[in-house]
């Protein structure tokens, strides 16, 4: 049985944010290069599904998970 990732709420202060930006902002990864590789390689899920689009627009309450850590988009 898969372990549920620890999820933190991250306030973005706007209506939406791109996936790559959010991963750096939330501290899931430090560099844009690392974010790009993780997304392209299929190691990132959004709302439980793998998403390989770095420019995907996230909305409030979307949950991004990478390496057992999760971050929820908050206003």
From TrEMBL:
InterPro entries: S4_RNA-bd_sf. It comes from the Bacteria. Gene3D superfamilies: RNA-binding S4 domain. Coiled coil: none annotated. Pfam families: S4_2. This is RNA-binding S4 domain-containing protein. Keywords: RNA-binding. It comes from Microbacterium plantarum.
């Amino acid at each position: 049985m898969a372990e549920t990732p620890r999820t933190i709420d991250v306030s973005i202060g706007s209506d939406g944010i791109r996936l790559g930006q959010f991963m750096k902002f939330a501290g899931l990864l430090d560099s844009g290069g690392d974010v790009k590789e993780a997304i392209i390689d299929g190691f990132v899920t959004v709302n439980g599904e793998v998403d390989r689009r770095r420019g995907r627009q996230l909305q409030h309450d979307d949950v991004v998970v990478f390496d057992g850590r999760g971050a929820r988009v908050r206003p």
